[in-house]
TrEMBL record:
UniProt cross-references to PANTHER family, sorted A to Z: STEROL DESATURASE (PTHR11863)
Transmembrane regions listed in the UniProt entry: 20-37, 49-68, 128-149
Any Pfam family: FA_hydroxylase
Top-rank taxon: Eukaryota
Keyword Membrane carried by entry: yes
Protein's UniProt name: Fatty acid hydroxylase domain-containing protein
Any GO CC annotation of this UniProt entry: membrane
Keywords attached to this entry: Membrane, Transmembrane, Transmembrane helix
Residue ranges annotated for the Fatty acid hydroxylase domain, each copy included: 136-265
Compartmental location: Membrane
InterPro entries: Fatty_acid_hydroxylase, Sterol_Desaturase_Related
Family assignment from sequence similarity: Belongs to the sterol desaturase family.
């Protein structure tokens, strides 16, 4: 196995791949005269911005339609359904932050294209076994990093007051919705996404898998704010995350409950219903 990380020929593979993604999004949505003259970095940012916005609205509207209209009063009681005003405010906050959110993956792709990270282009470079090992390490690193970043955004009072409080005005079922998933102060959103970026410098990461995980991130943030408890252990589902929004000191985890379980900040939805306090 020999990965010529420093060679321009190897790095060109990343540029070709990001250019392909740029073309798929931009060529199908915008006239070529609008985006083709732009530098590659700006094309990548524009692609991330447009794709991120589409993903946000698509996942938010589809999930809201499913739980608030198609299956109205099945998953949530009528008084737990957020108002249109609340959802519009969440959309407003998310859209103000979206240009800044999408700057982080754009910078990451630029660093990948220039050989500054441990990203690799093809699974064959390491083989499937090591690919899966590195993927597991990546996910553990992200879980650990987001847990502590999220917890510190609560524990460090200025960070909470000036950044994270923007998200926590949605603190009960009838104000939470899938659109709240990206309703953050832009710096807050970037800080919580930072472990995804830092992992690229530490753990060999398959580039296309990294892109796919960022896509999953967009869907996941909508899902955990819908207040529906899926009960799929050890997943940190919406039942757990709703408790986080109501108690402010439990369930800081991201994809799983493991970090909260290990560090004593876990609170089960069943405990919340019974009135048990940790």
């Amino acid at each position: 196995m020999a990965m010529a990380t420093g060679s321009s020929e190897y790095l060109r593979q990343f540029v070709e791949e990001t250019s392909m993604y740029n073309s798929i999004v931009l060529a199908n949505l915008l006239p070529a005269t609008w985006w083709a003259p732009l530098p590659h970095f700006l094309q990548t940012w524009l692609r991330n911005y447009i794709a991120g916005t589409i993903l946000y609205f698509l996942s938010g509207f589809l999930w809201s339609f499913y739980i608030y209209h198609l299956y109205r009063n099945v998953y949530l009681p009528k008084d737990a359904i957020p108002s249109n005003k609340a959802m519009l405010m969440q959309i407003y906050v998310a859209m103000k932050a979206m240009p800044w959110y999408t700057l982080l993956p754009t910078v990451c792709e630029h660093l990948i294209e220039n050989g500054w990270t441990k990203c690799y282009s093809g699974i064959s470079e390491f083989g499937w076994s090591l690919y899966l090992v590195y993927l597991a390490i990546y996910l553990i690193f992200v879980e650990f990093g987001i847990y502590w970043m999220h917890r510190e955004l609560h524990d460090i009072k200025p960070l909470y007051k000036y950044l994270h409080a923007t998200h926590h005005i949605y603190n009960k079922q009838n104000t939470l919705s899938p659109f709240a998933g990206l309703a953050f102060h832009p710096v807050d959103g970037i800080l919580q996404a930072l472990p995804h970026a830092l992992a690229l410098f530490i753990i060999p990461t398959h580039f296309r898998t990294h892109i796919a995980l960022l896509f999953l991130e967009g869907v996941w943030t909508a899902n955990i704010h819908d207040c529906i408890h899926g009960k799929l252990w050890p997943v940190m589902g919406a039942g757990y995350h709703t408790i986080h929004h109501t108690t402010y000191r439990h369930n800081y985890g991201h994809y799983t409950i493991w970090m909260d379980w290990m560090l004593g900040t876990l609170r089960e939805p069943e405990e919340e219903k019974s009135g048990k306090v940790n």
